[in-house]
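[step 3/7] fold_predict: job queued, chain A
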Amino acid sequence: MHEHLSNEIMLRNTVHACLIELQPSLNPKAVALSQALHMLFLMEDIPVHFCSPNKKLAGLHDPPSDVKLPRDKYKRRKALSVYHATQLADEQGKRLLQAHAKQDDVCDAMLQAVAWLRREAAIEL
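[step 4/7] structure written:
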């Protein structure tokens, strides 16, 4: 894994920071993977920032009342991520999101990056 990711990072030479979502202690495999990624990026001298999953939706307004959202808290957060990421994306981005098999996860990652940029770099997107 290190050799593959290291080559990708070095080839692109465009990674300026790595954001890793904090994982619940109830999921030790996810925690171990996030720690491995943390070490990998630190070995490449790339700053790593751990982000709370709760902050990706902070400051975003609820969608209009005609948008139906699930009652289940987890499913609702996933649906909100897809809604807000789609609102932020341009037409090409929307097509890419709609075509992705793990649309909710891609939207989560996108909103995590947007929230971090707004908070840390004071960039308004």
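[step 5/7] annotate
The mean pLDDT is 86.
The longest strand covers residues 18-21.
exit 0
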